[in-house]
Amino acid sequence: MRGSLLLQALLLQLTDVLLVESKLRTNPTGNNQVEAQAVGMADWAAFSTPKGPHFAPDTPTCVTAAVGAPAHVPCKARNLGSKSVSWIRHRDLHVLTVSSFTFTNDERFSAHRDPATGDWVLVLRRPLPSDSGFYECSISTKPVTTISVKLDVVVPTAELLGDGEVYLDRGSTLNLTCVVHFSPTPPEFILWYHRDKLVNYGSREGREIKVATVHKGDTTRSSLLVHNATVWDSGRYSCKPSNAQKISIDVHVLKSETPAAMQTTTSSAPPAAASHLLSQVFVTAFCVLAAAAHTPDVASLLIFISSGRPFPLFTLFTNR
What we know:
The protein contains 4 helices and 22 strands. The protein is α+β, with helices and mostly antiparallel strands and 320 residues long. β18 (207-216) and β19 (219-226) form a beta hairpin. The longest helix has 25 residues, at 2-26. It is elongated, with a radius of gyration of 38 Å.
């Protein structure tokens, strides 16, 4: 095998010489030396001696993980041969794993070789913010070859878009959006609850309930859509991601004759109730102004208004 490789190398070198000579004949411009080096070295590099154990240039030096999801810290060790890979926690120099063997009582730690990429991956199940810090991947060469990777464990938070309460008309579409922040990997699940009971998705009795989830960057959005909402759909709704605390919002479905096309979690006040309140304020102001114009005794007027009794409107037009 070794002799065959040497013969191939000699043949390749002879080919390079012939190519250089051909180049010299066709280009007598005086730049022959530079061109000869470019032709010969480019082809010979394919047969250069491979590097020993080393880390790939694209080995990550910072990994972000979220509470509630396993943390995977890759080590791109290459050309190991008979050498082994170890993971060491930097803060206390504790050897966590050697190859696939674990040397810690913390059962959350393990390591394995990814058959697809060849990386040696340190796995930390149920990571906590206190696990953040530097971890060293080392190859058992002499001297030891090491690389440090910083692990950041973040705490995801959930947010329900809106102001705490949602108002919509009967027959409208309820749209609740739950946003999970600081989640580098998507939550394993996001559950929706209505009155502390798990929401059943699908269609029934002319109503459709569905969920759409989108993950981008470190943010996950889950939208609950309830078409043709009824008064029964009122109540407290909760969003519970697998890696964040539950968050809730109150929904009020109003009995309206003219349902709106869509009411989302950005709604904060019932339009019907607001109109009714405005009418009451207008009538009260009118009565006060009219009474003031026809009642000479201001003190008696104030005592009458503060009593809360209905004002007899016909007295406004009685000649005194």
